[in-house]
Design a protein that fits this description.
This protein is of the alpha+beta class and 382 residues long. It has one domain: Orthogonal Bundle (Cytochrome-c3 Hydrogenase, chain B). It is built from 15 helices and 8 strands. It has a 3-stranded antiparallel sheet. A 3-stranded antiparallel sheet has the order 6-7-8. Strand 6 and strand 7 form a beta hairpin. Helix 4 runs antiparallel to helix 5, helix 6 runs antiparallel to helix 11 and helix 11 runs parallel beside helix 14. The two termini are 36 Å apart.
Amino acid sequence: MSIPAALMTGPTVLEPVVGKTDEMIVNLGPQHPATHGVLQIVLGVDGERVTRAVPHIGFLHRNHEKIEESRSYAQVIPYLDRMDYVSGLQNELPYCLAVEDLAGLEVPERAKYIRTAMFEFNRIISHLVWVGTYMLDLGAITPFLYAFRDREMALDIIERTTGGRMLPNYFTFGGVRRDVHPKFWQDLLDFLDYFEKVVPEYETLTVDAPVFQARSVGVGLLSQELAVNHGISGPNLRASGVAHDLRKDQPYDAYPELDFSVITRDEGDVWARSKVRMDEIYQSIDLIRQCAELAPRSGPYLARGRVKIEAGEQRYRAAEISRGQLGVYIHSDGGTGPYRSKHRSPSFVNLQIIPDLFIGQKFSDVIAILGSIDIVLGEVDR
């Protein structure tokens, strides 16, 4: 069959396969629940094997960075929640860190612990969305119901603290917008006491389940070399044996005071990427408990000061969010907002490995591989 010209461009792996006369072109997405957003992947399939995979983005483009360049520094923060809308609080932090560096604002100790606890709490919420929707992709309904049950309980705590649920707009320059309510730390601990007992149920239904292992072990292998060369970050990188975590390598807020290690696996397959995320849920529980123990119960939650950045100043700051390294570059011209704003979003970068992970795999494994990457299209088409 003839191959569309659009599929004949790009890297070598996407060139026509000589002699593959039975290759069939299949469109996965852009309107498909298993693509986790409006993502289109044009697949070449010969029999049961994938011969090519071309991801197409741009169906959700919202022009985030140019909008930010026409807003004041403070007005940018609500837009950040809408990039990776599953990890709204986490999106806010690297931008705040960059502005704090440029404006010379020192975050109070108490605010650092509040932000770190909320950051890790949002990681739990994000991983719950991942495990629920991913298992739904693979045909299991029960984990989805469990995950969204527990996620709603967690979002209730976020709402009592920030006034919002998915889009909290809570972190700001020098700390947090408002003080936590009197029962904030106890609410977190009460939830963790309950949640820590049910996490083993998730493991039983997912990484420990024979059916899931049959769908994931040895599937979608990502080598260390390939992961590093493509700039992959987050659980996808650590599941390939690379112990890179910005919370350790470039610590921010209260992380220098916390005791934890970088979680890695060596297998580099779908199962390893899933196992790393499950282990990170336990790790986040422990980090939040440490924050609750060490955080001052009184003191300022916000540094008072004017955000004034001189012309020509620029800064890049990054944080380790649920999907990897989220970086923010800001360039000032001396005005009230950024002259140039640029985000390095992990989902966008992680999508680069789709051709390498898909080609040669069974067509029936495509959804399992894609879901293991854990992307959110809101930050891809920002």
